Amino acid sequence: MIEIDNLSKSYNNDVVLNIPKMSIPKSQTFGLVGNNGAGKTTLFSLILDLIKASTGKVTISNNDVSKNESWKSITSAFIDDQFLISYLTPEEYFTFIGELRNIKKDEILKSLEPYEDFFHGEIMGKKKYIRDLSKGNQKKVGVVGALICDTPLVVLDEPFANLDPTTQIRLKVLLKDKSKNSDKTFVISSHDLQHVTEVCERIVVLDKGHVVKDVKTSKNTFKDLEGFFANQ
Amino acid sequence: MSKSVIATFFYLSKKSFFRGSSVASNIGKKILLGYFFICFVAIAASLAVISFYSFDEGLGKDPLIEINNYLIYFTILWVVVRYFFQKIPKLIINPLLLQPISKKSTVHFTLFKSTFSFWNTMNFYFFIPFGLLLIYESEYTLWQVSSWWLIVFSLILITNYINIIINGIDRILYSVAALMISFFLLQKYEIIEIGEFFAPVFNLSLISPISSLIFIPIIILSYYLSFNFFKQKFYLDSDSKKKVEIKKLEWLSLFDRFGKASTFIKNDIRLIIRSKAARGVAVMGLLFILYGLIFQIDLYRNMSFFQIFSGIFVTGGFLLTFGQYVPSWDSSFYPLIMTQNISYKEYLISKWWLMVIFTFASTILSSFYLIFSWEIFYAVIAGGIFNMGVSSIIILISGAYTRIPMNLENPKAFGNFKAFNFRMFITGTLPLLIPVFLFNVGVLIKDSNLGFLLIASFGVIGFFFRNIAFKIVEKIYKSEKYETVKAYKMIDK
């Protein structure tokens, strides 16, 4: 699904990310962990062509993201609040995203039904603009916005942050269920080692822009990661 | 207020200015700004000289008495212009709430800083030379002129503080608006000549210079009111208390026929209705429809140049005001747009449609100018077609370079020099220069009707070749994409 080739990003000769080669196969649930400044968001921004790579390229389905816009039709993402439209209600936001993907309004509203639990009655029909929702509820809207479109690739940056414990658990169940029962590819970053090891089949650890670990998740992964970060 | 607190505030302001993302880091831009500043001072000073001598020698009247007749209009203009353009001073509260600094000193400092804003100081460059001329060229004493200066600068400061209050308290905004409208009506129906009615107050400085001191308590009062207003706002949630009413806007489905573009058009209309900043600009743009009325008095009626001038402005008001911030209106969610299933081209076309639809509506609304003359009607139609076919593209191109991170909830987050950039200036003047040029060509060859025809046909040509234009526009936007995403990250909250 995603191929990374000789990718690096530097600001004024300061290399913040350098990944010679990495491949994320189709239908994998890919977890990215690392301390602040490790380069997670930089990598996501490069995947989504929001910043320009200093060298190398990212391809999605064999298309260089910086040269060809076709990746947009198979990708949805939620990175931060710049992926939300503050003056819309959640319903309008979902409809907006749906319309861009040629999904009718009724269909979109229908595809929201499975998320009712996740929303915990705080999102739909509340007569509030997104700007007036709490941080946690905004995050719910963004994450669901990325999920409902049925795109083969979903990129989520820190989906667990800011969520209350109940919602974190529900999101975990949701993501596990989605990755098991569909061939969607997930790329997820998180600071929460427990969640990310539970959800993802593969974990990559970034440190100062370099891949320092790339493992298949097993029983011991959480312990290993904890050990790794404790000794940083 | 201890000395060190003030020093700390100055330190913070200085840092926020020089480290602000929007301060041009390159020296060239600074020089350009400096150059414009000098030009401005020169223009203001020469305006003072020109108006002094045109009163004094041209009309043979006493310049001071004469200008005092207009002073109330100045004041009204200040209030109106400030309301629409001046950024109200911002309290940097969040980090300060828990610090051992009294609320009072923070508010005092904020207001103190606003006193020295360009909006106030720019008036010096007119009124000080004018006053000096009064001393040296007329027979006024320094004493009288100083007293007059005191009055003028009091008015400026009072409008400065009033602006802060009317921005925050709707009730006062409506009362001020009502007052202005009643002034206008009194003047219009010649019940009271407002200028002359107020002039005696300003002429106090001539009779007894000391009496102008009565303005000082008024300054203090307006300062005190805006101080209180700010102090109340000194809680994080003070802004969010107002209840929100959701407007459903079902009628937007009307636009569905425009395909994917409709999604964005609907969104932009929601933006205009729901965001304070966008609403202000859009309303201003539509008010331009009335702008042509100025040129319908007999003085201009027979000057075709002014008719085409109004034709461009009344139909293009929305384009020039709201349109120039396209796509900055989407700055707060630009990365979303960049990753959704819509190509850059489709996105740009939808923005173009928005401008064309609004320009079309403005043109229809402006067709009432027919009651004045056929000429202005032709000018409106020609201007409308030109704006739809050509200006819309030019404005779209300028949007690629505008890149103002827009805070949609703070209407005063722009409209200052920060946003200035040379490419914007060029693309901003082209929609006016081209039609004026075409018009003159038409007049030179035959008559003004040919001029209008030329302008309109350029519009039609632009419309037909828009796909070629879009290719160029798309290329420009693509090459600016990363810069734009980066710039839009810096939203001034």
How confident is the prediction overall: mean pLDDT of chain A?
89
Strand content of chain A: 25-35%
Distance between the termini of chain A: 32 Å
Radius of gyration of chain A: 18 Å
The count of DSSP E runs of length 2 or more, i.e. the number of strands of chain B, is 0
Oligomeric state of shown chains: heterodimer
Which structural class do the helices and strands of chain A define?
alpha/beta
The helical percent of chain B reads over 70%
Number of helices of chain A: 8
Low-pLDDT runs of chain B: 413-419
Percent in strands of chain B:
under 5%
> What general form of chain B does the structure show?
globular
In what order do the strands lie side by side in the largest sheet of chain A? 6-7-8-3-9-10
Structure, described:
The complex is a heterodimer of chains A (232) and B (493). Chain A has 232 residues and is an alpha/beta fold. Chain A has one domain: Rossmann fold (3-Layer(aba) Sandwich), CATH 3.40.50.300. Chain A has 8 helices and 10 strands. In chain A, helix 6 (165-181) links the parallel strand 7 (153-157) and strand 8. The model of chain A has no long low-confidence stretch (mean pLDDT 89). Chain B is mainly α and 493 residues long. Chain B folds into 2 domains: 29-239, no CATH class; 250-488, no CATH class. Chain B has 20 helices and no strands. Chain B has helices at residues 3-19, 27-58, 63-85, 103-115, 118-121, 124-137, 142-168, 170-188, 194-207, 215-232, 260-274, 276-287, 298-301, 304-321, 334-339, 344-366, 374-402, 422-445, 448-464, 466-488. The longest helix of chain B is centred in the N-terminal third of the chain and has 32 residues, at 27-58. The chains are: A alpha/beta (232), B mainly alpha (493). The interface between A and B is medium-sized, with 35 and 29 residues.
